[in-house]
Structures are given as structure tokens and as C-alpha cells.
Design brief:
This protein is an alpha/beta fold and 400 residues long. The strands form 3 sheets. Strands 7, 8, 9, 10, 11, 12, 15, 16 and 18 form a 9-stranded mixed β-sheet that branches. It starts with a strand and ends in a 6-residue tail after the last strand. The chain binds NADP nicotinamide-adenine-dinucleotide phosphate. NADP nicotinamide-adenine-dinucleotide phosphate (NAP) binds next to helix 1 and helix 13. It comes from Reichenbachiella agarivorans. This is Saccharopine dehydrogenase family protein. InterPro entries: NAD(P)-bd_dom_sf (IPR036291), Sacchrp_dh-like_C (IPR032095), Sacchrp_dh_NADP-bd (IPR005097).
């Protein structure tokens, strides 16, 4: 008997709930809770109709620890899967500590009033989780998440030392909208408008936003303009794999997307500074989120694929070696299975697998862990059968 509490009923929460329900031999009881309970109820109804599995739902404002503690005490889960927003990471970790429950998330903490994400806030919980004998797994989506597991798997099985890591993230899909983000618009725009940053020779190198561009070829998709941006898994990967001489993260953006982004910034709509509008305080970026398409609604017309992977160079038996491991995910196939588009799917499936690893004791340990610190093998095995199969290319041209 393993009870799980999922917090957050957006695109990712929907996929996590679906995948847990599909694996109800492991997740014997599932509760989906969020700020707006009606969204949880819609997902629960859909799961009942399509999978015949009953899940319970609840309302919670995860900004408030006492509310969370009350809910966790009622539900009595073994694990909380946090797929709300990064702003809620610390309150949910606090509530897990108070109630003696394991914790897992997909994105690192960000303070709401500062567009800055780093692991320091969550790593600071290390001693408290350790003393409580509880496990906190950080960053168990696709990137961070699967990309970190890919790196750990490569280091374990294919290299003596890994030296160059390029994480390449391509969304080759088309949702037919002039501008929309694939996950929470506020979080997404904060992420992609900040300065670029990558690791080289023991230090961080900062760039202007989208300063470094290169056309990279993605399997089944083709050449796409790709840009170096800062992404959170780089921080833990360079710490956990000190042999890395360089680590970068590339993301594809279309010209149309970048033009919209530039306009949004130029007219002040990406600002997180509150302004006074007709006697009411509003945050421009939060207002923008309210008028942009809901990422969860993009699914039914979304065509094309995502392709995300790791391109790695290093040494094996004294020889230079290259290795590319990736997954391609079809937006349409994701929607047919879960009624969510590919970006939500590629995040939600790994979160469910991470939860499965903890509940089946394939992953364990007291403290706060990034996923690459865990055994990658049973996770990689599950990826193959849970909808995100991976492909390896040995000694190919990495283009980088
Ligand atoms: N690692 C990866 O690969 C990856 C990729 C994409 C996304 N992510 C992360 O996945 C998470 C979910 O993304 P998403 O696209 O599903 O976002 P979303 O569609 O905006 O959904 C967020 C959900 O969280 C709920 N929520 C927000 N504030 C809350 C609060 N105070 N208390 C309780 N619930 C609250 C929202 O409720 P309301 O409906 O009431 O607003 C909504 O149901 C984000 O943290 C995102 O950064 C990770």
C-alpha cells in the first residue's frame, strides 16, 4: 500500500496523476490537490472515465505550511509530489518535515519577487531531512531530471571521465498559436529572458540573453537554431561531476517566438515589479500570464515532436569518446494518452518514475538529493516502458 499526494493540477499535475493511476499497482491510493479544486476534479473525472481508476481530490493553498500540514495529516501519504510552482517548494518541504513524509519536485525554488533560481535554498534543508530520516528528491522532470539521469548513466556505463556536456532541448512542435509558452508562462518567461550562463574551466561564464547561437540537428526534426541559456541542472551537475571541463544547456527558439519575447520585454510586460493600475497593484508578468493561452489547453492541435538529450565527450580506456542519448516525444501521442501536450508529458512521466523509485525502495537515503546522485539504471529501465524511450548514439558527430 503506497499513498501519494500530488500537489498542482496544471499540465504536469495532470500527467503525473494519469501515470500514477496507470501504475496503480505501485500507487495504490492517489490524492490530487491544488489551489483550485475544480481543476483536480476535472482530471479525476477524466482518469475515472478513461482508466477506471478513482483518485481523491482536495483544495490547498501550498503557500501556507499549516494548510499543507493539515492536508498531509488527513491524507497520510508516504510521499508528496510537488508539481505546483517553484514558489511553493520550501513551504511544501517544511510541511513534509513536520509530518514525516518524503518529498519530490521538478523545479528548484524561486522567490516570487526575484527572477533567480538556484539550489542553495533547498540544499540548506540537507541536515533537517537527514536528521528526520526522510528523502527529498529535487528536479525530477525532464530537464532537470532525465537529462541529469542520462549524464549519470553515461558516467557510470560509458566513460571513465566525462569532460564536455551539452544538454540539447528542442521543441520541434507547432501548436498553431502566434505566441504561447509550453509550461507556466510566468516561470517560463522568467527563465528564458535572463542572462545566459555556462560552466567552463572551473567557473561560470555569463552571456547576454541568447548571445550564443548555433544550428544543431535534432533526430527526426532537422536543423534548428539553438541558444545557450542557463538551466538549473547545470549547477548540480558540475558539482556532482567535477571532471566536467565545460557544461552548457541549449534550447531551440523560433524567430517568431524571440520577436514576441523581445516586444514583451521592450514594452515592460515581462517585468515582475508591481505597478499601480487604477488603484490596484498588479505585476505585469502575472497579468500577461492571465491573457496568454493556458499551456494545458495547447494539446489537441499540437503536432510535431520534442527532442531532448545529452551530448557528451570524454575518455574511455584512454581514448576520446562521444556519446549522445536522447528521447523524442510526440505531442499528439502524449495528448492521446493523457490529454496533455508533450512538454507536460515529458515532465510528468519522470516525476511519476522518481516517485515509483522511492516507493519501491530502488532509491533511498536520508537527505536532499539531486537525481543524478541516485542509481540511474532502474530509472532508465522504466523510461523505456512508461512512454519516454531513449536512443543512444556512440562516437557520432556531436556538432559541438
Ligand atoms: N523539470 C522539467 O523538465 C520541467 C518542465 C516544465 C515544467 N516544470 C515545472 O513543473 C511545474 C508545473 O508546471 P505546469 O506547466 O503544470 O504549470 P501550471 O499549468 O501553471 O500549473 C501549476 C499548478 O500549480 C497550482 N498552484 C499554483 N500556486 C499554488 C499554490 N499556492 N497552492 C496550490 N497550488 C498552486 C496551480 O493552481 P491554479 O490553477 O489555482 O493556479 C496549477 O494547478 C512548475 O514548477 C514548472 O516549473 C518542470
Amino acid at each position: 500500500m503506497s499513498k501519494v499526494l500530488i500537489i498542482g493540477a496544471g499540465g504536469v499535475g495532470r500527467v503525473v496523476a494519469y501515470k500514477c493511476a496507470q501504475n496503480n499497482n505501485v500507487f495504490t491510493q492517489i490524492c490530487l490537490a491544488s489551489r483550485t479544486k475544480s481543476k483536480c476534479d476535472l482530471i479525476a473525472e477524466d482518469i475515472k472515465t478513461r482508466l477506471g481508476v478513482t483518485i481523491s481530490t482536495a483544495q490547498v493553498d501550498a503557500d501556507h505550511v499549516p494548510e499543507l500540514v493539515k492536508l498531509i495529516k488527513e491524507v497520510q501519504p508516504e510521499l508528496v509530489i510537488n508539481v505546483a510552482l517553484p514558489y511553493q517548494d520550501l513551504t511544501i518541504m517544511d510541511a513534509c518535515l513536520e509530518t514525516g513524509v518524503h518529498y519530490l519536485d521538478t523545479a528548484n525554488y524561486e522567490p516570487q519577487d526575484e527572477a533567480k533560481f538556484e539550489y542553495s535554498w533547498q540544499w540548506a534543508y540537507q541536515d533537517r531531512f537527514k536528521q528526520a530520516g526522510l528523502t527529498a528528491i529535487l528536479g525530477c522532470g525532464f530537464d532537470p531530471g532525465v537529462t541529469s539521469i542520462y549524464t549519470a548513466y553515461a558516467a557510470k556505463h560509458h566513460f571513465d571521465t566525462i569532460e564536455y556536456l551539452d544538454i540539447v532541448d528542442c521543441n520541434g512542435g507547432d501548436h498553431g498559436k502566434a505566441f504561447a509558452t509550453n509550461f507556466n508562462p510566468e516561470i517560463n518567461i522568467r527563465e528564458v529572458t535572463q542572462k545566459g550562463r555556462y560552466w567552463e574551466n572551473g567557473q561560470w561564464v555569463e552571456t547576454e540573453p541568447h548571445e550564443i547561437r548555433k544550428d544543431l540537428t535534432y533526430p527526426s526534426i532537422g536543423k534548428k537554431a539553438s541558444y545557450v541559456i542557463y538551466h538549473e541542472e547545470l549547477e548540480s551537475l558540475v558539482k556532482n561531476f567535477p571532471s566536467l571541463k565545460r557544461a552548457r544547456f541549449w534550447m531551440t527558439f523560433g524567430d517568431e517566438y524571440l520577436t514576441h519575447l523581445r516586444v514583451i520585454q521592450n514594452i515592460g510586460m515581462a517585468s515582475i515589479e508591481p505597478i499601480n493600475y487604477e488603484g490596484k497593484e498588479i505585476v505585469p508578468l502575472q497579468f500577461l500570464k492571465a491573457v496568454l493561452p493556458d499551456p494545458g489547453s495547447l494539446g489537441d492541435n499540437y503536432v510535431g515532436e520534442t527532442s531532448i538529450g545529452c551530448r557528451i565527450k570524454g575518455k574511455k580506456d584512454g581514448q576520446d569518446k562521444t556519446y549522445y542519448v536522447y528521447n523524442n516525444c510526440s505531442h499528439q501521442a502524449a495528448f492521446d494518452e493523457t490529454r496533455a501536450q508533450g512538454v507536460s508529458y515529458t515532465t510528468g512521466v519522470p516525476a511519476m518514475i522518481g516517485a515509483m523509485m522511492l516507493l519501491t525502495k530502488k532509491w533511498s537515503g536520508a537527505g536532499v538529493f539531486n537525481v543524478e546522485e541516485m542509481n540511474p539504471d532502474p530509472f532508465m529501465e522504466q523510461l523505456m516502458t512508461q512512454g519516454l524511450p531513449w536512443v543512444e548514439v556512440h562516437d557520432g558527430d556531436l556538432e559541438l
